[in-house]
Amino acid sequence: MAALTDRPAVGPNRWEERVPGLRLARSYERPWLPKDIVAGLVLSALLVPQGMAYAQLAGLPPVTGLYTSILCLVGYAVFGPSRVLVLGPDSSLGPMIAATIAPLLLAGGDPARAVALASMLAIIVGVVMVVAGLARFGFVADLLSKPTQIGYMNGLALTIIVGQLPKLFGFSTDATGFVAETRAFVSGLFAGEANRTAAVIGVSALAGILLLNRFIPKVPSVLVLVVLTAVAVNLFDLEAQGVDTIGVLPQGLPTFTIPRIGWGDLPPLVLGALAIAVVALADTMSTSSSFAARRGERVQGNQEMIGIGAANIAAGAFQGFPVSTSGSRTAVAEQAGSRSQVTGIVGAVVIALVLLFANSIMQYVPQPTLGAIVIAAALSLTDIAGVRRLWLQRRMEFLLSVVALLGVALLGVLPGILIAVGLSILNVFRRTWWPHQAELGRVEGVAGLHDTESYPDAERLPGLIVYRFDAPLIFANARSFGETVRELAEDDPDLRWIVVAAEPITDVDTTASDMLQELDLWLNARGVSLVFAEMKDPVRAKIERYELTRTIVPEHFLPTVDAAVAEYQRQTGASWRGPEEPT
Predict the structure, then answer these.
(1) The model's pTM
(2) Which fold, 435-572?
């Protein structure tokens, strides 16, 4: 498994730590160059069609996908710590970008304003990521738990697929939102709006990509289908039959541009940028950990944030839009023999050459093929096996996954990500609010004390209850703890000691402290002692700082549960008995 590390940069290596591209330039080995060049050429064949397809998914002109790809590859090569990760336009971010900028567009959807908004969005995402990386906030990626990630990505895939179906069948709709888009697609289909020729191209391209990915994964399926469908459009003049194509791209490289937006646009852009940053970070951490583990490398979480931030700022300054790590493109680069970020630089150079000297190379690529590329990418986002595993292993987390899916599909991408993050946090809080609690007993032939629910025949000591509370003791669960202990005391008139197995209790806050003081006084009035065993030193220090030892005497804090049981037996002479034996 990949190790996570983020040692602060000090001394003469500081710049190399913060700008890994410098370290790469100094340590680069000449034998790597041929492999990096080949991998870069292979990668560029994927970057060009995917970049344009994902730009359209974000509601932007196709050429902006190429601008974005060039600059983000260069930005990450300079500031990114991983040797193999490939950044670029991403299918999971496209709907989030569209959802952020669409409400801000003026009537008619001016493409220039859309590009300006998307570029500013990328810059804000980049600034957020760089600042968070410098502040060592890499832990933010943990805000999305695995079940909510699965639900979010499945919901995202569903919305992407439904949104691309009209393009796949050669027509368009003005509907927005999963339900409206579904209704509009079905209505258009039955109304005969679909173009049969375009539908054949789109469905064939999708089937071809999926089949090649399934049976011949080493073949660049996207490139193959782009070439085949473009040749078919040109050879049979399918444009005359109503098949839309990309057309000739603008010639030349993007220029440095400061996006011009209004102050009123900033709040929604910032909100969208925060959501995009969380998704991009979670995606990058999981992808980088996976590839680093296979290569025996370390993942530098905070520097990854800086690298992604730099890539987004670079893209935004040159008419691009937000980017993230791509697992599929990274896998392609690695399989092609990539040794370093020079692979990305080669890919960026190839795209630049296409824009400068071969801008008409994609003019016959049909729009249904771009729709097929996006749908194939969306299908790769789904995790049906993960949903099935959640159903079999933990129903509550399965329900969280379903709610996250419905949030994305029914409320939209940005509300969906907020719901996913909120559900992850609430799930953690739920486990703390209602933790597992157990009464412990001795089981013959098994060392230690164990949950009497799991072992109903466990033996108990008369007058003693050993109680375990599996959570920090805080304001949210203090009342539950107190009520449970009072019920235990009331149910056993001969009770003399309640021993709390405190090893799982990692914290005690002031609310819980007040509860413990009242509880101890209540128990003492009934001749029952409240005893703690295996309490951690930091928690014991808090207990003393709260001055709880004025009511709970120091002798009632014992190092282990066994020591507490032995002390009780020494004082009372009690012996173990089965659950049904009389006292």
Answers:
(1) 0.72
(2) Transcription Regulator spoIIAA (3.30.750)
